[in-house]
């Protein structure tokens, strides 16, 4: 007999409940961008070792503003920055970066309010009218017409029990989690980028390193690694939440069997200068994400070192393979079609943060 059709309403309701439960257990300290997770009794908090976004970029070269300026084509520089000194251009880049980051944060907040059916202040509705118009189009044409129900927005997720001492953990925030009519889980990541690059001529920006050594050093690859780390975190977060909430057997089984296919992990770019929203299927970096977690001692060290460098110096230095700690290469991971399988080598089966013993 054919398999019974999934009870998608039950799966959606269960996922919503479990993700709501995690909000009570994990919090983000905005100032330091540090995640804290409560223990099983809801008392002691433990800081996550590293966030997923920093961990994802640890396998790619850092952007070196001074080097980029030095190698800029003279005609391009003259056209864009005629008469400006290097210091002025670098200062302008930093100003533009901060302004873009701030606008991106506001846009994320407004999209969350839209999805949660909350009223947006009139001044922000006007200031971000272009972004909201693009998102409304995406919501109608993609979410509504495809039957995707958003069950959680800005949801914190984590995975723990990592490293040689099983004491390291990774956390992050997924912009939106949805469930479609076939019972598939969808991950969405909102971006406000002038341009998302899948590749550049002659691989001019270089390649990644370690498990991402075959990937181009472009933002689509960075985001894709990050999203597949989120996918791994999501499944373990849901499985951990099962221990906090009493569920009927069919609902619990649906979550235990949850899989997140690669084509359900998507980046949605909403930039006011574009005439339409852009949807990018994340590059399949499931094996990259597993390899990073399997060698978390190495890559979390790289990410933390980078953070110290960028906060203590004027320019960001590139970290190459030669700068990495002398840790043995992680074993080759052959990820199956299911993103978060418990069969990955050197990872504990429950993969929980330390307080959950």
What does this structure look like?
This protein is an alpha+beta fold. Helix 1 crosses helix 9, helix 8 crosses helix 10 and helix 10 packs across helix 11. It is built from 11 helices and 9 strands. The strands form 2 sheets. Strands 4, 5, 6, 7, 8 and 9 form a 6-stranded mixed β-sheet that branches. It has a 3-stranded antiparallel β-sheet with strand order 1-2-3, with no helix packed on it. A hairpin with a 5-residue loop joins strand 6 and strand 7. It has one domain. The chain is 41% helix and 16% strand.
Outline the secondary-structure elements:
Blueprint: H1 8-22, E1 26-29, E2 34-38, E3 45-47, E4 50-51, H2 52-57, H3 65-70, H4 74-81, H5 86-115, H6 122-127, H7 129-146, E5 149-162, E6 168-179, E7 185-191, H8 219-241, H9 249-256, E8 265-269, E9 278-281, H10 286-294, H11 296-312
Parallel strand pairs: 4-6, 7-8
Antiparallel strand pairs: 1-2, 2-3, 5-6, 6-7, 8-9
Helix pairs in contact: 1-9, 8-10, 10-11
């Amino acid at each position: 007999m054919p398999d019974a059709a999934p009870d998608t309403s039950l799966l959606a309701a269960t996922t919503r409940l479990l993700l709501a439960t995690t909000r009570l257990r994990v919090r983000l300290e905005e100032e330091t961008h540090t995640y804290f997770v409560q223990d099983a009794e809801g008392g002691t908090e433990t800081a996550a070792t590293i966030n997923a976004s920093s961990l994802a970029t640890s396998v790619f070269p850092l952007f070196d503003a001074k080097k980029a300026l030095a190698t800029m084509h003279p005609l391009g520089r003259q056209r864009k920055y005629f008469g400006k000194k290097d210091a002025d251009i670098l200062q302008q880049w930093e100003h533009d970066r901060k302004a873009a980051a701030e606008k991106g944060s506001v846009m994320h907040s407004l999209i969350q309010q839209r999805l949660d059916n909350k009223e947006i202040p009139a001044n922000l509705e006007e200031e971000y009218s272009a972004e909201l118009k693009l998102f409304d189009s995406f919501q109608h044409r993609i979410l509504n017409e495809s039957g995707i129900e958003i069950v959680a927005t800005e949801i914190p997720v984590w995975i723990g029990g990592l490293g040689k001492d099983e004491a390291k953990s990774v956390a992050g925030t997924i912009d939106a989690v949805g469930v479609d009519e076939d019972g598939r889980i969808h991950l969405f990541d909102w971006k406000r980028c002038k341009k998302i690059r899948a590749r550049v001529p002659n691989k001019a920006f270089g390649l990644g390193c370690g498990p991402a050594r075959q990937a181009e050093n472009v933002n689509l690859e960075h985001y894709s690694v990050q999203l597949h780390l989120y996918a791994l975190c999501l499944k373990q977060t849901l499985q951990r939440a099962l221990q906090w909430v009493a569920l009927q057997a069919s609902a619990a089984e649906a979550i235990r069997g949850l899989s997140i296919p690669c084509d359900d992990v998507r980046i949605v770019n909403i930039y006011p200068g574009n005439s339409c929203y852009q949807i990018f299927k994340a590059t399949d970096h499931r094996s990259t994400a597993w390899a990073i977690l399997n060698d978390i001692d190495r890559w979390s060290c790289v990410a933390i070192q980078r953070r110290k460098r960028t906060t203590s110096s004027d320019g960001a230095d590139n970290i190459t393979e030669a700068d990495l700690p002398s840790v043995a290469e992680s074993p080759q991971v052959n990820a199956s079609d299911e993103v978060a399988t418990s069969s990955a080598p050197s990872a504990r089966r429950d993969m929980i943060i330390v307080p959950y013993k």
